[in-house]
Amino acid sequence: MSTSVNHLDERTQDSAELLEGIIPSAITLAMMLRHRKMAAWLRTEFDGYQDVEAAPPYRRELHGHIVAKSPQYGWIPAPVDDQQKKSFGYMDLLDGIKALEKVCVNCKKGNGNRVLLDKEEMATLQKQINLTAELAINLSREVYGRLLRTVRAAIYLWAQELIAEGISGEHNHYSREERAKVAHLDEPDKFWRKAMEDVDNLPIPDVREVGFFERVFGRTG
Q1: What's the angle, vertex CA 88, arms to CA 87 and CA 92, rounded to 5?
Q2: I need a labelling partner for 86 at 20 to 30 A (CA). Which of 14, 32, 120, 193 fits?
Q3: Which contacts of 77-86 are long-range, i.e. CB under 8 A and separated by 24 or more positions?
Q4: Mean pLDDT for the stretch of residues 202-210
Q5: Predicted structure pTM score
């Protein structure tokens, strides 16, 4: 299978390209370069994390707004104090990239995604605020978008360093010498940590919104 670092680099900066399509290409490249740690991280991002402890910090304790379901008004802000917001108003996003991206693509700017609180946490908070209503966390589109942009930025940074080392152009395989030259770049932690710090200063696009016709007729292409 042929792959190009340059093309991968371009795709990370193209808002028309979804991350669900970029990651499989990045995995192929990582395997060709024998970057096993990078390939493993990319696969886990694609499939999702089974264990909260294994999830990177950009997926954990993401803050949202606690809302309660009112029979008359639907979902409204829950009557919680600052301490309760701090204790209950966050969640971990462990789903695979495809599911997270689908939420973000279908969510308009300024909106969010509502996720019910864990049963035990809901029961505890219901008791504290003396409500029997269902409770959920509303995570903004920006929270999902930042997570996705961080992963995309990590791939971008990796591709940039590969190019700087002279790994460019179309390839069906890489020589032992070429692989050895970039062996030190098999460090996903380094790239996603840098992505977390610099994502707002990198040429990484926001996740696009689905247009009206796509919503009505389904995705094209």
Answers
A1: 110
A2: 193
A3: 78/125, 78/129, 78/131, 78/135, 79/129, 79/131, 80/125, 80/129, 84/125, 84/128, 84/129
A4: 90
A5: 0.91
